[in-house]
Amino acid sequence: MQRQNQWVLLMSTSIVSFMSTIDASIVNIAVPKISRDLRIPNNQAEWIVSVYLVLICILLIFFGRLSDQLGRVRLFQIGTIIFVLGSLACGLSVNLPTILAARAVQALGASMTMATNFGIITDIFPLNRHGLALGVNSSFVQVGNIAGPGVGGLILSFANWHYIFFVNVPIGIVAFFLGHHFFPRPKPVRGWPKIDAVGFLTYAGMILSFFVMIFWGQMIGFGHWKILGLAIVTLAFLAVFVLVERSQTDPLINLRIFQNLGFSFGILSAMLVYMCGYFNNVIMPFYLQDRLLLSSGIAGLILMAVPVVNIFSAPAGGTLFDHIGAEKVSFIALFIFIVPEVIFILITPQWSLLWLIIGLALFGCANGAFQNNPMIMGNAAPEFQGIAGSIAALGRNLGMSMGLALATSLLYHGISLKAGQRMTTYPDMHPDWFVFGMHYAYAFSLGLILIAIILLGIVLRKKYRT
Q: Cys bridge to 399: 213, 271, 298, 412, which one at CB 3.0-4.6 A?
């Protein structure tokens, strides 16, 4: 394949990756306006975020397995069209049931593209350019993950919430036709695909009970007996899933993929980093708009410091990967994360706004340099490339969802500790309570980064001992 065609295809897949990832977070900042516009309570408006994340996590592995049989390009292109139609339907929605149905369509398309994009890139680029190619794609994925509040704030400063979805339509159509023109033609499909139905149903049950536990736990507390019961149900589904997959000749997930320590710890460390990224998505808009009293437009511009720096640091990290390895680059990036986390733990409204911008920019630098996708895909054997891409995307979405739950729960737990009573909303009369809660939450975020450092340290030590 000609080199210029490779880069056109990389841009096509990366643009769709960006859109499908950003739609998991961009709606957060629009939830209050959607709630008022549709005349629904805030907690019901949050379903618009949750439905998208949950369905993607349920469908990712299914489409990853299907892509190995039907072809990744075919599934990616179909997913792009479905995602565009879902985005159009979201923008045209006028009530909660229609927007939830449209978000389900969006999630269907997004899961098809997320499950196949990494595999397509490793197929079309030679091995010695995987680092740079996956690094470029990582920049789009990571920017999509962290740019939601910033981009959403900018759109909402001059247009209504419908345009958060409408902007996907022309971009998605362009990406589809680029792919249609440049992608290699998919091979004809022979016979029906083999699907591990029992494995998929137990996996879906596990993911669903996990998310119900996470979202319900935020409302009634994670120590409640109902939440503990759901944790037991989730673990039971996991145990059954493992037993089923071990007995299947053609399983949904070949569990041998997790025998590679670099792959397993790569997934876990990537989840931890995405969890930390969501702390910024949840907490920083509150801090900028409610505590510092900045407009949504100005807040959006400040939050753009993360994705802007990320755009440059991700390809640079990918180039370094081609020379020294993804694990080394990611290990260094994790130490860079410590600096912004410490700034966020210590910062107060009396500090210059420049410190916050520096912290966000350093977070974007570290986030881009963290080569999670090349690290994960590089540790997966050739026969596992399709499912490895799906598991990587699943880890990302689980990390985002757990980050959302953790950041919210820790923020309000910290506020409650300062207030001496249970708090579940922003303390308008005591804004310093919020600052205490923010510091409390970011202290846990720093702990997650330290755990990721330990995991990658173990991988590097084992790698250079053998």
A: 271
Residues near 450 by beta carbon (within 8 Å), at least 6 away in sequence = none
Whether the Cβ atoms of residue 9 and residue 182 lie closer than 8 Å to each other: yes
Predicted pLDDT of residue 395: 86
Catalogue the E-assigned strands of 207-274.
none
pLDDT digits (tens, 9 = 90+) for 284-316: 888 998 889 888 778 878 888 888 888 788 778
Q: What is the token pair recorded at 388?
A: 């490895």
Separation CA 391–CA 179 (nearest Å)? 24
* Residue 258 token pair: 């997790």
323: burial class by Cβ within 10 Å (0-12, 13-18, 19+)?
A: exposed
State which amino acid sits at residue 455. L
Pairwise CA distance, residues 360 & 363, whole Å: 5
| 420 φψ region: left (φ > 0), alpha (ψ -120 to 50), beta (else) | left
Rounded distance between C-alpha atoms, residue 92 and residue 114, angstroms: 25
Residue 369 has a pLDDT of 87
Q: Distance between CA atoms of 379 and 76, rounded to whole angstroms?
A: 23
Instruction: Please give the C-alpha separations between residue 226 and each of 216, 223, 454, in angstroms, as whole numbers.
Output: 9, 8, 33
Q: How many CB atoms lie within 10 A of CB 43?
A: 12
What's the CA gap between 396 and 111, in Å, rounded? 12
**Alpha carbon distance 260, 263 (integer Å):** 5
Other C-beta atoms lying within 10 Å of the C-beta of residue 298: 17
DSSP 34-79: HHHHHT--HHHHTHHHHHHHHHHHHHHHHHHHHHHHH-HHHHHHHH
Q: Which two tokens stand for residue 369?
A: 């340099």
What tokens appear for 379 in the block?
A: 């540790």
Residue pair 409/217 in contact (Cβ under 8 Å)? The answer is yes
Among 3.40.630.30, 1.20.1250.20, 1.10.760.10, 3.20.20.70, what is the CATH number of 3-195+252-465? 1.20.1250.20
* 20/110 Cα distance (integer angstroms): 5
Whether residue 13 is predicted with pLDDT greater than 80 in this model: the reply is yes
- CA–CA gap between residue 101 and residue 105 (Å, rounded): 7
